[in-house]
Each structure stands twice: as structure tokens, then as C-alpha cells.
Amino acid sequence: MLPVRHLAALLAELSRAPGIQDGAEISLEANPGSLSRKKLQALKAAGFNRLSLGAQSFDPGLLKTLGRLHGPDDTRRAVEQARAAGFGNINLDIIYALPGQSLEMAAADVRAALELAPEHLSLYELTIAPETPFARRFEKGRPPLPGEDQAAAMEETALELIEAAGLKRYEVSNFARTGHACRHNQATWRGGDYLALGPGAHGHLAGRRWAFASEVGAYCAALEQGRQPYLWQEELTPEQRALELVMLGLRTTEGVDLAALEALLGNDPKKTYGGAVAELTARGWAKLDEGHLVPTALGLRLADAAAGLFV
Predict the structure, then answer these.
(1) What are 149's strand-pairing partners?
(2) Mean pLDDT of the chain
(3) Which residue from 11, 93, 263, 293 puts its CA 20 to 30 A from 130's CA?
(4) Which residues pair with residue 51 across a beta bridge?
(5) Is the pTM of this model over 0.85?
């Protein structure tokens, strides 16, 4: 949404202040309809090197149902122009199990995305958050959501298409060509630190987590009064951090790093979580492999249930 000159100035200031390592992955999220050839060229010149586009669907009717302002051709044009501008790392977001969507329509969306040869693909099942504009629209007679079995069939078909196209699954909803897994996502799933800058931003540092006020006026007022603009903050115990590593790791093909758990807990995690680990392996949801608890394909499909065994 910001003009390119503001984004470029922000990136330049970050380079001068905390600094940006050579070869850093610098992502920008955008709606396909908000880009132009000139804007993409300027963004690439400013230093952005990864582009994530909210394609969501390639069906005009479904895009309208989602309340999106762009059309399928906007996504195709954005990818073409991004390639021409020099972007060699592009992600597309796709949503399935949409109101009125059939299995054939869901497969067509994935095929259309793969035809654009993205380096990364994020595939999400629709969830409707209450008290949102979409939820209110949906309540007013929108077509019904696909059932659980139909949604599972959509996911299975999508997985087959994506795998055949050469993208490997590295997290429940994320797929990438070799060397293009999103670094920010991976750092988060491994319990890494991330800096919060700006209204609504979330940060994490060695077990302390916080969020800044999302309302711009409140954020600025706090800074002008010499205060940090916290909306909330919390200190996680080692046990809480370990449990989060388990829950996040069971969503990835890398799995849970048992050495990282041991460093937090001060003892062998196979003892602390022995019952849950035994149950996971007995059900065929995970296996122990070279210091990691690695989910199977079935375990990834049932990641939330698998994580529930540790609670």
C-alpha cells in the first residue's frame, strides 16, 4: 500500500541502523492488482528480492466471493512483470475449500498457479473468523462451504499436483523449490527471534514476546511520551517455549529438534514427553530420526491432533 519511495526509504534506513546482512532475503507482500511494471522495477532496485502475491484463486467468481478487487489476469500480469523486473523468488498464496468451490475448481486454481512457475507456494484451507466483513457476507446466503471430506480431497489433489511440479512440502501449508523455503517462516517455526517495527508488529527475543499497538495514533502518542507502544507483552517459561517448539515442529517436514528441547528443559525430552512420543509413533504420525521427531505424511495432515497429545 505504501508508495515505492517510502518502502525504499524504509529499507535504506534499516540498512543504516540495525544493518542487513549480505544475501538477506527481503520479502514484500502485495495484492496482484496493486502492482505495475514501473513499481516492480523500483522495488527490485531498492533491494527487495522476494515477492509474495495474494493470488488466492484464479476463478473470477470465487475472487468476488472473497471480496478481492483483483482478477486472475492481474495475478498473471504481476508475475510476468515481476520476472521482467528481475524477481527470481516469487510466492503465490492460494486458498481452497471456498464457498461453492468444487474439487475440479480447486484443482484448476492450483494448476493455474503452477503454470506461473513460482519458486514458493502457500496453500491454505479457508477459515472464517467471526465478526469479520467476510463472515458477515457469508452469513447472508453465500454458497455453502465444502464438507470436511471434500476439503480433504481438495488438499490431497493439490498435494499431488504440487509435488509433480517439483515443489517440496516443508510445512503443512508451504511448498518450495530447492533453496527457496521462506527464511522468515523457518526462523519462526524454529523458535527464533524477530524484531517488531511499526504499529501492530509482533516481536520475540529469547522467550519474551510482545505486540505493539495497532492503532497508529496510540502508537505515535506512546513514542512521543517516551514510552514503548506495547499492546501486550509476556515472558514464556522454558516449558512453554519447549511446548511451542513441539507444536510448530510437528507442522514441518524437518520435525522437532530434540537437542533444542533438551537445552530448554534441562533433561531428555523423550522422558518428559515419553508418553506422547510413544503414542505418535504407535499411530504412525511421527518417527524418531537423527535427533528429530519427524511427522509422517499422515502426521502432517493431523498436525493439530498430534500437537494435542503434548498438552
Answers:
(1) none
(2) 93
(3) 93
(4) 28, 90
(5) yes
Q: pLDDT tens digits for 13-29?
A: 999 888 889 899 999 99
Spatial separation of the C-alpha atoms in residues 13 and 217, rounded to whole Å: 22
Q: Is the pLDDT of residue 130 over 80?
A: no
Grid cell digits, residue 60: 473470477
Model confidence band, residue 136 (pLDDT cutoffs 50, 70, 90): low
Q: Which three cell numbers stand for residue 262?
A: 533438551
Cα–chain center distance at 292: 22
Query: Are 53 and 75 within 8 A, CB to CB?
Result: yes
Cell digits for 175? 511448498
Neighbours of 90 (CB within 10 A): 20
Q: How far is CA 88 from CA 44, 91, 102, 117, 219, in A?
A: 10, 10, 33, 11, 36
Cβ 97 vs Cβ 126: under 8 Å? yes
Q: In whole angstroms, how far apart are CA 67 and each of 70, 102, 136?
A: 9, 19, 12
Place of cell 534499516: 14
DSSP structural state of residue 265: H
The pair phi, psi for residue 67, each rounded to 5°, is: 80, 20
